[in-house]
Amino acid sequence: MGGSMMLSFGEAFSTETPASAEGELGIPRITLRHLVYFAAAARNESALRAAEELNVSPPAISGAIACLEQILGQKLFIRRHARGLLLTDSGHHLLLEARDVIGRVHEIEAIRTNKSRQVRSLSFGCLGDIAPNLIPPLVRSFQAHYPQVDIRWQTACHAELKQRLEDGVLDVIIVLDFELSPAFQSNLLQNTPAQCVLPREHRLANGPVSLKALEKEPFIMLDIPSTRDYFLSVFGDLGLQPNVAHRAPSADMVRSLVANGFGYSLLNFCTPDRRNIVYQPIDGDIRPSHLVAVRQYRRRASKISDDFVDHARTIALESNLCGTIQ
Length: 326
Fold this sequence. Notes:
- The chain has helices spanning 9-12, 32-44, 47-54, 58-72, 89-113, 131-145, 158-166, 227-237, 251-259, 303-318, and strands at residues 77-80, 84-87, 120-127, 149-156, 172-176, 184-191, 195-199, 218-222, 243-248, 264-267, 277-280, 290-296.
- The protein is α/β, with parallel strands linked by helices.
- The chain folds into three domains: 9-111, Winged helix-like DNA-binding domain superfamily/Winged helix DNA-binding domain (Arc Repressor Mutant, subunit A); 119-191 and 290-318, D-Maltodextrin-Binding Protein, domain 2 (3-Layer(aba) Sandwich); 195-280, Periplasmic binding protein-like II (D-Maltodextrin-Binding Protein, domain 2), CATH 3.40.190.
- The longest helix is centred in the N-terminal third of the chain and has 25 residues, at 89-113.
- It is elongated, with a radius of gyration of 24 Å.
């Protein structure tokens, strides 16, 4: 699915709904069983594996999918010979809705039967550069409070995480607030101002840094889309043009280059590091940045999702991801 905006559920499906889509007396023809079977097929990319997971027959899965396609008037899967099922765009949209409905029913059951420890799942993504400092304490803390929740995580860059959130693969992503779609809901975890990264023995290493004084010196660019544009805007806000001498694919590489005297850099995350570098604030008014937990507006947030975001905020602050570390 391309682009940064998702169609509404109604726009994703035909505007001419078959007459049979509405049952008598307004009773929906789509059942919870249809949605559970469909979601399992999407998760496993196979009717056979979905049937094994749910302990039902493969024809039951295939029949539910066929019924949904008839009711909605759209193909939900592309059938690939010997390669399983691939969701269509309409299938992606239905999967988001199905997960919400199924999740809500599970919550109702948990409240009604007082099963506060009912097994559930949550998938989140995190920027790769901060993942080593954030994911382990976050997952450990969250699992201590929700030991029965199956929590899964993955790391990637901004663009990939945003796409996976749009596709419904992830429930929450932890990113910087760069180029976020209006379809996303953001919760602030921590302010992450850009800081200057310098060799420990640099002449400007002992206090707030004027980038004007560094303009002629070699600059090491963290060459990641969105992040790269943000750092260039920091210079632009001050009317400056950096002397880009090196481009690095990761923050770890940036820190290593700085520590070995190849130049200076800017980073938002000043993770603990003793490799002969220091972090200093930047003089002047520059564009702020923030670490945020992002979800889709169109997906109603569950209590588990809300609690996860609260945990992420606490862990981000405790981890000192953007403190001045010398």
